[in-house]
Amino acid sequence: MRHKPVLLLLPAILLAVGPTAVQAAEFTPQEQAEVLRFQREYQALSKTVYPQQNIYASKPSLKNKFKAGSLKSSYINEQVAYINYYRDLFGLTAVKTSSQGNKNAQTTAAVMAAINANPFVNQHGLPNEKKPSYISKKNWLLAQDVSNSANLNFNASPQTAGDVVTDLLTDRYNLSGSDTGHRAWPLSTRLSKISVGAAYGTNGYRYSVNQVLNVGDSARTASREMVAYPNAGVFPLELLNGQNIAWSLYFSNKVVTSTPKITVTDDDTGKTVTASQVANYSEYGFGNFQTVITYYPSKLQLTAGHKYTVRAGNLATYSFKLFKQSSSQTYSSKVSSSSTQSKNKVSQKDLQNKGLAKYLYKVGKNISTVKSKKITNAKAVKTTSKTKKTSKKSSKKSSKKSAKKSSKKSRKKSSNKAKAKSKKTSKKAAKKSNKKSSKKK
């Protein structure tokens, strides 16, 4: 049964993208070049929509003789291109994909589509579902494995391959609130590769799988110490445009246990706002980050061409300028040193992460409902044998709640929670994991 939706009232972000009487910040020649580069790269990305009739290279068989089928190479390539475009925005290295990884992700998506997995409950490890006779034990175990190491997106309307990535990046339809766990994985400073899968169920939902947890990634050297959303430098207004988009600060190696006071200043108007709902989700280890802090810039008016400065206690101070990525609009420039800055940079430390980090997925808390397209996002979690037991207990409680469709429009939802486990439990779980055909991190 579906969860009864609970509407979370989050602070609105006021947006102004039209003409303004305030003199906008001037862009340096370097910033101008960056804006033009990102605009051109975005325009070059495919905007092809992939309905059920257009997504497969070989159509899956989801009934008696189960076959996972395969996606068109164009869909996979376009999704990877969007991921790398966004990673470039944040100064992160590009990632690749693999044929075997995509095959596993596709099998996982097809299994969920075959059973019309409930989009409104936890599907990591398929704790709420029962294996049908026409799906082999091998494929079922593989789907349980991969779904536990992937961002899951369930959508009832056709989208481009990139729309799925954008939904995960903005993370605005998050069942568990503002933790931005979906965002943290594609923006991970240690991410080496991703895998892509997608399949439509008879219920009309497209089950999308982005496997992002990879063996060995947690021990990789981080490519950056801090990843901020919005990023320092120039940043697309579109990625902040809308309700319920939390901002975030991720630190690869620095451990922060407190919640800093955060302010955001529009340097062109002089107005400063104090961030609300500042939260520290570091214990969940999203994206293999040591620190995950999120917040909302309450009642902040965002304007293309303006410069903003974020001050997060003594952790970081940086600036960014907004531009429209979907247009060829240019901004005034002058020859000067860059106005963007980054103070109080944290020195790089050697990652002291022995064994595999463990996470416990929690279900049925702080469920939010937004009247929009029907979407559910579920973040990747690292699992142990205890995870499955806990998920089942949570599922039984959650299944008692009934879900109602909120409107004629479809809804988007996302869910994710996880807890760090002990090193001892981590080692035992890792040994068990290595025995499975497809392994999680």
From TrEMBL:
InterPro entries, from UniProt?
Answer: CAP_dom (IPR014044), CAP_sf (IPR035940)
A Pfam family per the record: CAP
Q: Which UniProt keywords apply?
A: Signal
Region feature Disordered, mapped onto this chain: 380-441
Q: Does the keyword Signal apply?
A: yes
Q: Which domain of life is it from?
A: Bacteria
Q: Where is the composition biased (Basic residues)?
A: 385-441
SCP domain location is: 81-207
Q: What is this protein called?
A: SCP domain-containing protein
Signal peptide positions (record): 1-24
